[in-house]
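Structure ticket #2291
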Amino acid sequence: MLYTVSEVAKILNVAPSTIRYYDKEGLLPFVERSTGGIRVFTEADLGWLKTISCLKNTGMPIKTIRLYVESAMQGDDTIDTRLSIIYEQRERLLEQMKELQLTLDIVEYKCWYYETAQKAGTEKVLNAMTLADIPEKYHPIIEHLHGKAE
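Resolution: structure written out below.
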């Protein structure tokens, strides 16, 4: 089955201009054109576009995605290059996930903090608490926010 830019955009949940931009940036060297010059996409092209979208969603720069695609088009001689690109991006993602986890942990602590204050009708109840009164899972967050736990 063949797809148009609009159909592919709908499948990927992106604007058609995104697909055209990818093409303009050299990310779609595999895409064929009809006799009228219209881009036509195959099922295999959809797989590539999904991979490109995934890499873009990881924050990978267009330049690096282009290198990845160009390397893939060259074949097996570039497996090491592609693996290196993917490993590097995985490391960036793992670091982002650590940062997001810390952010979530702080938000969870703040939920507990304000729920506790809400039940007591005041934040003063929290000021009177010792570290032993606070759930242990929040101790690392308190230390992160306020320095050494008291």
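Closing remark: Strands lie at 32-33, 39-40.
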